[in-house]
Amino acid sequence: MIRKNQHGSRFSPHRPSKPGLPQDSKPANKQNASGSDRLEQLIQKATNLTSSLPTSRYTASRQNLRIIPMGGIEEVGENMTVLEYGDDLIVIDMGLAFPDDTMPGVDYIIPDTKWLEQNKRRIRGVIITHGHLDHIGAVPYILPKLGDPPVYTMALTAGFIKKRLEEFGLVGRSRINVLTKDDTLALGSFKIRFFRLNHSIPDSVGLSITTPVGQVVYATDWKFDHTPADGKPTEFDKIAKFGAEGVLLLMSDSTNSVKPGYCISERELGITIDRTFSEIKGRIIFANFATSISRIQQVFNAAAKYNRKIIVTGRSMVNNIEIALSLGYLKIQPKIVIKSEQAKKYPDNQIVVLTTGSQGEDAAGLARIARGDHKTIKIKKGDTAIVSASPIPGNERAVAAVLSNLTRLGAHVIYNKTLDIHTSGHAHQEELKLMIALTKPKFFMPIHGEHHMIVTHAELGKTMGIPEQNIFSLDNGQILEINSAREAKSVEDPKISSGYVFIDGLGVGDVGEVVIRDRQVMAQDGMFVIIVTLDRRAGKLINQPDIISRGFIYMKGNDDLIREVKHEVRKLVESKGKEKLEPNWAFLRNIIRDEIGEYLYQKTERRPMVLPVIIEV
Amino acid sequence: MIRKNQHGSRFSPHRPSKPGLPQDSKPANKQNASGSDRLEQLIQKATNLTSSLPTSRYTASRQNLRIIPMGGIEEVGENMTVLEYGDDLIVIDMGLAFPDDTMPGVDYIIPDTKWLEQNKRRIRGVIITHGHLDHIGAVPYILPKLGDPPVYTMALTAGFIKKRLEEFGLVGRSRINVLTKDDTLALGSFKIRFFRLNHSIPDSVGLSITTPVGQVVYATDWKFDHTPADGKPTEFDKIAKFGAEGVLLLMSDSTNSVKPGYCISERELGITIDRTFSEIKGRIIFANFATSISRIQQVFNAAAKYNRKIIVTGRSMVNNIEIALSLGYLKIQPKIVIKSEQAKKYPDNQIVVLTTGSQGEDAAGLARIARGDHKTIKIKKGDTAIVSASPIPGNERAVAAVLSNLTRLGAHVIYNKTLDIHTSGHAHQEELKLMIALTKPKFFMPIHGEHHMIVTHAELGKTMGIPEQNIFSLDNGQILEINSAREAKSVEDPKISSGYVFIDGLGVGDVGEVVIRDRQVMAQDGMFVIIVTLDRRAGKLINQPDIISRGFIYMKGNDDLIREVKHEVRKLVESKGKEKLEPNWAFLRNIIRDEIGEYLYQKTERRPMVLPVIIEV
Fold first, then answer.
1. Does the predicted model carry a pTM greater than 0.80?
2. Which positions in chain B touch A413 (Cβ < 8 Å)?
């Protein structure tokens, strides 16, 4: 009556898994095809491709500009785009994504760069738009595989990248070139100019890329903020100038494309933070992203105003504040930061704890504080915990659990549902429209978001007068090709893989689809190993079969079931095991797997992974 | 450098797991203690309890009223409360909850009712407040274990319960008594009166329970809606009258206690639905909860107005519409419902598909349509899919994946972020305050929600003038005891277990903490079985050790690692396996588990479940 996966089970394959494999075009196939089906489809697809290549007025040529999204247009994260013209390649951003619940045990996801590795001698440079992990996180994994090409970026971003390379022992291999937003960069056939954008981290830049076929405007993560925390608004003048020069293609951030209106300003948020600080009597525990330098600045401002000292906790928070301070991106009052040991000297209403963990991450500061196992910070009644972030989709329950634990310890909690204590770094619909109005692009390609966000952004483009056939809502690995006659077309190139590479522990890419699928199965219903010890010559059972099972059923309470299974196995071996029909007893193993699997399902409606092992003695 | 669980891994223990085990009071202990640690704490706690029992002016007695929450105050779902006075017990609601991502493979969670089973002869009746699964879902699991006590509820709820019992082959065992909201029910020492509340399902009632120590008002899931879809608003007059009589204790819904202001009316939402229908040119695919009869009514109204026929799909949607229709809770136009085969006869702008799956559930209508494997409904360009629900926390990514798949097939999508196409059934802060103002309770106990929601609701109570010591933010299994002098105290009773019972396939309660933990470990890093075949007498290896591993690493690409492990195992057996020190080779098995586990961690930074098996021949 009750079937698996029917009611909100977390292991449903609701995201097409695709490590190392290019995408099928139909969701139906994506989600349901078994490994071998998919392989077949791929072969078919590869075969079809040749015949479906552009035939009419469109001619594929080295004189075409190719926009190759390696990641970030089917998900929020792992942003990476390659531009190709003639022999030249440039790479924009190298981000990571966090796994979803269909990828158990995976730490991060990065784009599959096999094709790029094969073409590394053609890479003229890597441009990084800003210092968030979904734009720089994969740098230490990918850069060495590409032969350590030079990196070009702004000062703060460079600081963050250097720190990350340092953590991986890779400092000094790639040259990290620090530019200013008014520099012009020439990389092969590409001329790159920069313009300042607003985002939750300073030094975010958009790109104007002049190519032989026209100008591409690359608007990475951004919002328009007329009153940003650092007082440095978007360079509208530059964007308007680029627009006047003629924009062939606009690529723009879709993260908030589903949200109407405008994103609230970081300065307005500062007012909320100020008011909140003014009202709180006890200690304040303030959690936000370690990369949100602007938010951190506002916390320092409010703390100084209300005469509070700040304890900084969480490794990345400490690191990033150091980097931002040393480069002048953060202005703080002398002696405002104290060590936690000094906290005793101050009354509670003079303390702010600034911490990581706004996403509910287990190992981060806030979760440790909430569990009561932070080394120095113990929650007590009268404390107020402020979570100044929205949960990234998938983190909602983890955040709620942290909030519950905090309240259980006596803290009052403030978060985005109770108060507007967070503003997004991504443009809402009216801002997105303004970007289109300023750049007036011929072609439009929404980037950075899940497919439904990309499509919603595409619809906004249509309402702004861009013809539907000039808008490209692509998938990772699909290529936008524009020829010298300024005609654009989406094409696929079987040589370019667009899969995910999973990072798990020390392994990069050694956890693939098969391993993940096995983890899913075992998480769902556990596993059931059946060990059959056979006399090599007689093919007869020597011992009673052994059963090792975990995650399936509580073994001690189910002696009968186990006894019955052993009996069934014995019967199977006696009737089918007489002759070793195939090497390694494949036939007998298959029979045991199928029959016992079915037997267990009949008894329990569960399908553990059944693993028969035949030991020959 | 990269550690497990550090960055948003889904298997973090962010919810205390507690099947079958009562709760510790500190989150720190809850989350970190290993099985044996927890057992120790429990023993300690049981010992402490006797000494910490009320000593001063408070006397435990059978003449006390005891409020025993079995579920629903540490989570959204599995709502169930028991009231005890003298020899009498009454039960309110029997709900289920959906598992979170720390409970892989679990279908549902229901409250642990062991204590109630032992006291079943004292149960005077079961009262069900409304027909949602988090209030009736556990009925077929629990009712038979309690000796099929009589159930009392309103007509629509009774219809839903009967259907559910029918699905489990349990019809006719418990008597399902249909009452009206103006009936008075006497069950032992309790007199129960009802008052109509608004919620997203008709026939939702609150309870006034007169007990020998005073009146308890039980406000289950509710909102105040002055213009509900069925035109039947909350009975404010009754609530005010109960308030005037004197309310000893108010128990009230905390689901939206973090949300400021008022919840928008179902009628206002109807206007949005109407406008949306008026604007859409193609087919409409409308997904919502199958139990949201009011929302379904509004869809029928809008469809009729704009001359559209309705195709109903999804088993529970079909069932519930049938029940609501037969009982007169849904008024629909003749011939408006058509079979999907008839759809061809109508142009697209005359079709609405009403479907389940608004939570992104894999097996429900909308996900099947979005994957392209629904039997009769195929998405085409021009279709508009409307998801009229908020994702239950934890379902966000599943919903987003369904939206992306729909857009991939060419549909336009409308959901709660793009338009206010959903309103909650739960009161916001201003409504919650009004309930307190109307009932003026002496004691207040927030129910239905995660702990931080409960606490936020408690804080609202304080702002309304209820003294802090009269407000009880409890955990499941903690008991609120009120004596005849109208003094209240939270107590614990070691006899009353408050754990979760997991339902997985056919099994109820046979998946416990150990099984779940094993699933988590295997999901995280897989498993690694080492089979050592020993000569019984000589204690020597007969074969090369066998390795069976799944979910750990791609075996084919890692021959070297496997070879090295076999070598290590051989060394261990040769040095430690000489004598069979303990039965079943426990010593040797432990050594292999620890050493090889560590070896694998050094090589991979993963910790698969290592399972050594010794086969004696």
1. yes
2. 452, 455-456
